[in-house]
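call fold(seq) -> tokens
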Amino acid sequence: MTQQLAGPAGVEATRGRSLLRGRNFALLLSGQTVAELGTRISGVAVPLLAADTLDASVFQVSLLTFLAWLPYLLFSLPAGILADRVDQRRLMIACDLGRAALLLSVPLVALAGRLTLVFLYAVVGLCGVLTVLFTVAYKSMLPRLVPAARLVDANAKLTISQDSAELVGPTIGGLLVGLAGAAKTFLATGVAFLVSAVTLLLVRDVPTAPAAPERVRLRLEMTEGLSFIRRQPILRSILACTTTSNFFVMASGSIEVVFLLQELHAAPAVVGLVFSVSAVGGLLVGAFADRLTARVGSARVIWVAMATPGPLYLLMPLARPGWGVLLYGVGLAAFSANAVLFNVAAMTYRQRITPPALLGRVNAAFLWVCFGVIPLGALFGGALGTQLGLRPALWICVLGTWSAALFVVCSPLRRMRDMPTA
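ret:
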């Protein structure tokens, strides 16, 4: 479904101006870039704090990933209702401030000598709840800031900002952990979310959201997004593909820091460098996502992006100590390239065909299913790593990740070149 925009933001965009010259989108992009940088730093700092400082086992480290993503399973559907009924920008600001407070508490508690694994679990879990609320609101507000014809470009630019953060964030995180310790590194992550909140405060003249639908029974309202997805064969295929990929990616992600530390004997700075190398693939593809989508086809690119990079994933369990650790980074880079192109195209398709008044609940339904399996994947990875060993577990995970492509390869997308215009 195409969407008409009102107000200054829509007018600026429809005059053909660059998205980066639009004040609101530029603020959103800059704030998200800083927040993503903080997130990538904490992505290294959290497992290193648990494994090195708090002497957590492989399974205990995987529980951190489980708790970070469990809120998507528990709170995504209610978050969709909330995002469709409140001011999304204010909701995002409140979530940023809450996450900043939680993350800044870690170095303070560590300074007092009271830091425990249980406290870290609590911080990670509560941050996860706020991240769910933020993500649903964020994905639902974007189509009101840019016209439908520019959504691919907008999603691509936001994805590039994420991969730019991925490029430098883990390296910075590894260096900060090495220089100041894992607990003090959380100061940087907390400040990053404060910056994001400030940029959202500066956003003005956001086009009015569609009127909230008439209130119905809570259970029916929570499942409206799922009902819409069930009626859309392509959305069902995309959801199944994303869900399967997320499960196995998070299974490998829950053990990869331990794999790099124990199997490859990598120092914290090297761990950060590996994750930075992995971002190169996504960064390069994101820079040309608009052109690649136009050349391959806006619908066809969805299954091509999932199927093509798969063989390179096999480099990850083949990595060895020394220079061989870079093989892990190359495998991650291939997945990063796939994820950028697939996510940009799939998100744009979802935003274009979903009625604006229902978009929050459809986004929430996607998050509930495809992010809801992530904590289960984290537990699966931790259990596999414990029972079979880290390297055999990685083999199972990368093959499972590649198998997700079958859902979109064997879908109506294979017979389409471009997305419908309405």
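The CA atoms of residues 51 and 61 lie 7 Å apart.
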